[in-house]
Amino acid sequence: MFLNVHSSYSLKYGTIDIKGIVKQARALGIRQLVLTDINNSTGAMEFIRQCEKQKIKVEKSDSDNGNDPYLIKPITGIEFRLNNQLLYIGIAQNKEGMKELNDFLTWHNLNEHSLPLEAPQFENIFVLYPFSKGHQRDLRANEFLAIRQEQLNLLYALPISNLRDKLVIWHPVTISDKYEYRLHEYLRAVSLSTLLTMVSDEDKCSKKEKFISEEELKNQFSEYPFIIENTAKLLNACSMDGYISGGKFSKNKKTYTKTGCKADTVLLKRLAYKGLAYRYGLNNEEARKRVEKELKVIEALDYCAYFLITFDIIRFAIEKCKFYHVGRGSGANSIVAYCLRITDVDPIELDLYFERFLNEKRTSPPDFDIDFSWDERGVIQQYIFNRYPTGHVAFLGTMSTFKDRAIIREIGKVLGLPKGEIDSFTDPTKERENLLNPTYQKLKFVHQLMKDMPNQRSIHAGGILISEEPITYYTALDLPPKGFPTVQWDMYEAEAIGYEKFDILSQRGIGHIREAVKIIKENCGRDVDIHDFPKFKKDPKLNAELREGQPIGCFYIESPAMRQLLKKLTCDDYLTLVAASSIIRPGVASSGMMKTYIQSYHAPEQVKYLHPVMKEQLEETFGVMVYQEDVIKICHHYAGLGLADADILRRAMSGKYRSKLEFDKLVQRFFDHAKRLGRDEETTKEVWRQVSSFAGYSFSKAHSASFAVESYQSLYLKTYYPKEFMVAVLNNYGGFYTRWVYVHELQKTGANVHLPCVNRSDEVVNIKGNDAYLGFIGVQGLENKFIQCIPQERNLNGPFKDLEEFVKRTQITLEQAILLIRLGALRFTGKDKKTLLWEIYTYLGHSQKRLNTAELFNIEHKEYTLPKLENSALEDAYTELELLDFPLNFNMFDFLKTDYRGDVMAADLNNNIGKTVKMVGNYVCEKTVHTIKNTKMWFGTFLDKNGDFFDTTHFPNTTPMYPFKGKGCYLILGKVVEDFGFPSVEVLKFAKLDIQMNPVAAD
Predict the structure, then answer these.
(1) Do the strands 369-373 and 502-507 form a parallel or antiparallel pair, or are they unpaired?
(2) pLDDT tens digits for 710-735?
(3) Whole-model pTM?
(4) Separation between Cα atoms, residue 862 and residue 857, nearest integer Å
């Protein structure tokens, strides 16, 4: 009887989630209902699945022989609205009908057309129009009028015989109770960007739009039994059985070749063995056996097409585009992926288990994570969409939810609160006084109701689906700003339906490497084989750089935390870097695992292993289960679990897909198998304790190894071609630090770094020999058209001769010309800035009139003799700070009013362990950390006057609430402490130093 049920996926309208709908309907004995969310089908498959789960539970319990009266038959549809006005409701009769609805909505979304006021002719869909007295439209056989109980009195004035077969019950469901109705009102206000009091009744649901029993609903329509009959007949004519397969199976494209699965298997084998010879040579028996083993599993689990499609993407990137990529994640556990060049991590060298990626007992689909340069990924994405049929490929979506502070702000706005008051409600320092504020209490109540509700659909970072069936069987498609069709649900729903995504991701680190190789060729005339990783990891110079812990600009290892860890480990080899890339992950430090590892690393002889198997399997990591693969190893080698079961247990312990019953069975199997192997019971208990405690924090070794390979590649470029590498880092918008840090690093290489110049600079930084010119792209306020046209015009027609010619050829405006003059970009004229500023007005004047470049005669302007105009280095520095966000030719320390630069420099910290010192540091970055006692502490990074890094720790008992006050130099009083050879300063007192006033402001 319920033909129009909204879930919370009716964004900023419905308030009940899918599980809540099923639970409420079952409690009331409702047998069938239709989920019809507004302009989307996000929840359709989830709704079908939840109803099927209830059926399975009942069958397992054997209640009433599976004939539970409360089982729900799921039916799906879509409610179509235009500008918040209901047009019609489409109800799918079957799977084909759902595809029709999704196709209809998809066409309008992708072509950005408004929905029509009347529904088209559908084949497998019932269409409901809202009943109104004046409805004159002739209805098709599949079209009906939906009438509310309160509208029944209108039927007395109508010829009922004409409508007898067309009327159905309309009792929409949107809310659960009065509290959710209030939440609905807030959601509508947020959606309409208006005050709560301004939301009209037409923009809200009725307070009656909640579930009631079917009996109660039928009683409301008892005077019109034919309406009840029509409704029941419509519902009985619908069936979603086409979606219920009796077991999940992959929805991905099933074949890569046109001739089918057998051909896929043959092709994958041929490519794998060809890659085997490339990676290992012709006589590596161990590698050959492992390839054979993996191919059998891949074929048995029907993953040949998945591997081949990924291979095709990589082949296109390498051969057609000459793009560089990084294959990472658990896919790097596969030797077949390594042979196909999907990944660059040797799983034999690192003892990586294929079962971590793919095994016959894995319930969730695996996927490859493929990184490309940030500015090249779009080409790969477009290739995939062109390569596979329209309607069978789409981006994965995401569902953003209402978050804490955002909710407070949204609620505050719709209540009409002033911005200052809203800001105070989100200020953690005012939490105590807020708790006494009645308005804040009201906000907190709504906050609890709204928290984590779906807010808006968006696009996944890089997931792409390639489907065997048209994707519109399972979802309508959106068209986000990227311009690619996008499904209306997220990765978790995709996985539940049976899709394995192809993750086409991006990162700037690859851009650094790619561009550095190009610049080295241009500036040094040398070809660099950046894939010669075996040589890199053995290079003593690279390993010495690692040990020093100063790899600024190098992917993944440049952050303060990572630099500290490298120093503490005296890291100077690939395997240690792989471990470091794992233990640096969030949560590891708080678990104590990082400290344990560092201690054991420096004193391996003191490590006590519980059992010889533990020593055999964990000696590489000094008894610490750093990697997820370590957890699998111990479950397999100590307890005797199969590798597939070991991976399932590892996933369960990390909180993924945990079923209490199945988990307990696996744990018992761990103990039973260990006992059969003759393991001591007490030892087994301790082994299990360690396994279970480490499992939640350990990280994929294959993932870390992929990162470590890329780190070595960056490190090679920085070590041997530091100037070119730092230019590449700048041109790919840096990394962990702000731009000036990388400019500082470029200067440290010995390069002469110049301010932008209209006759030397390009859009981005360029380098010729030892001279690097900053690009126009970093100039604050410079319009994009001038960033592009200045170098284009110069390259086309030669260097600019003087200011007048520059103005004529570029057609620059007065404002933009002043900006470039102030920065010194026209210094090639030989005139000082203030003279040029005077002259620019003679050319463009106050009206900003442009010079005519098509003049018949070149009329010379009269020359005027100006008085001497004073300029200072400090004034220039302030200008650079304004326009570049950093001073290039002026040290930040030189802004200070004081000449004091500290008693100790960063290089001397090791000689002052335990002493209290005074230092002056130029602020680089900070990190806030919440302590166990729910207080805050901070970690800071600074440069001293010599340009060397040092790090600080700020404890809550010695530090103001918010110690950092932005960029600038700070006076630091603190105690020098040392942790595994790494010195830092525990701050006792801390203050930002005053700077000299800008001479222009002073005037």
Answers:
(1) parallel
(2) 999 999 999 999 999 999 999 998 88
(3) 0.86
(4) 15
